[in-house]
Amino acid sequence: MKKNAFSTSVVVIAGAIVFGIALGDVVDPAQMPAAAKPATEQSAPTPETAANAAPSQQAQQAQQAQQAEQAEQAESPQPASQQTKMINEEAFGNTPTARAAFTRVIRSLIPMDPNQIVTLRSLFDQSQQAVTQYPGVPPKPTSSSIMVNLSPGATPPVIRLRQGYVTSLVFLDSTGQPWPIVGYDLGDPRSFNIQPAAPDGKSNMLIIQSLVRYEQGNLAVMLKDQSTPVMLTLIPGQRAVDYRVDLRIPGVGPNALLLTEGMPSAENPVLLNFLDGTAPDGAKLLEVKGPPAQAWEYHGKLFLRTRVTILSPGWLATMSSPDGTHVYEMMATPVILASERGQMVQLSVKGL
């Protein structure tokens, strides 16, 4: 009995040892999580663990601050430039397919880029300028006076015209007063355009324009109380263009002013040259003080071009233009009395 009891005890002790070893292999108390360990077995945090935990907390705080800032920016209104940029980007489409379709439409409607458009407009402007630019030297504009000779065998005056330019013809009598026009006729109405400045024979001016470049023609003008028509030759395509031509008709017209002194000067080409401001060869230019005037000494006589009316000394001949300019031929004198707007003025001539 004792022997059997001892054997049984040995078997129980051996089984307990084997079971303990098995438990030791399956669960290691050192490897158990802190939550599973008893409170008495959880150790206090070491300095290394606390140091590693500090940066982790700082990173979490920085991330939270960044998220808060993004939330504030989302709530606050965006600047106009950013909103415009977002609108422009959205206008192209929100998907690749929409953006591709929008691009195709733009290319079909506006196939050229801005630089190509600027270049095209520049080339078009240059072509328009080349079309309108006159080849060669542009015509020279002139304004002159012509003495009309109505005697048989005389050469008719020549009027120089230009396509695209208007010429005015002014008819005056020997005193410089307007001579009314009662009729006119063109030799080639298809090549020239003509019209009076006023209807019903109340004007002494005709406006004429050439419709072609080189087609020539002539013009007949009938004046009031004048039996002989004034014949003019029209020649376009010249280097000079007559902008205005004062045609002086010999004789006294219906609107003439009676001269109280001096001699008629209807056929004095010298006075006509001085009236146009073109002094003949040999004329000496003099200095004049007083109202605006020009003076020349020519063949021992004094020629004065001015807008004032000469009172003293008496003049020998005179001629006037429609704009109120007068030219006087008189004996050489250093002092001249004249009337300007009802007031007496004095002109001093130096250089005689």
Structural commentary:
The structure is a single chain. With 352 residues, this protein is an alpha+beta fold. It is 30% helix and 30% strand. The chain has 6 helices and 17 strands. It has helices spanning 2-26, 47-75, 80-91, 96-109, 114-132, 269-275; strands at residues 140-147, 158-161, 166-172, 181-186, 192-196, 205-210, 217-223, 230-236, 240-248, 284-289, 293-298, 301-306, 309-312, 317-320, 326-331, 335-340, 343-350. Strand 14 (317-320) and strand 15 form a beta hairpin. It starts with a helix and ends with a strand.
Strand pairing plus helix content: what structural class?
alpha+beta
**Describe the biggest sheet?**
8 strands, antiparallel
| Mass-distribution shape | elongated
Distance between the amino and carboxyl termini: 184 Å
CATH third-tier fold name of the domain at 140-248: Immunoglobulin-like
Identify low-pLDDT runs: 1-44, 260-265
CATH architecture of the domain at 140-248: Sandwich
State mean pLDDT (0 to 100 scale). 76
Order of strands, main sheet, comes to 13-16-17-10-11-12-15-14
Secondary structure: helix percent: 25-40%
Rg (CA only):
57 Å
Q: What count of helical segments does DSSP give?
A: 6
Beta percentage is 25-35%
Write the layout of secondary structure elements.
Layout: H1 2-26, H2 47-75, H3 80-91, H4 96-109, H5 114-132, E1 140-147, E2 158-161, E3 166-172, E4 181-186, E5 192-196, E6 205-210, E7 217-223, E8 230-236, E9 240-248, H6 269-275, E10 284-289, E11 293-298, E12 301-306, E13 309-312, E14 317-320, E15 326-331, E16 335-340, E17 343-350
Parallel strand pairs: 1-9, 2-8, 3-9
Antiparallel strand pairs: 3-6, 4-7, 5-6, 7-8, 10-11, 10-17, 11-12, 12-15, 13-16, 14-15, 16-17
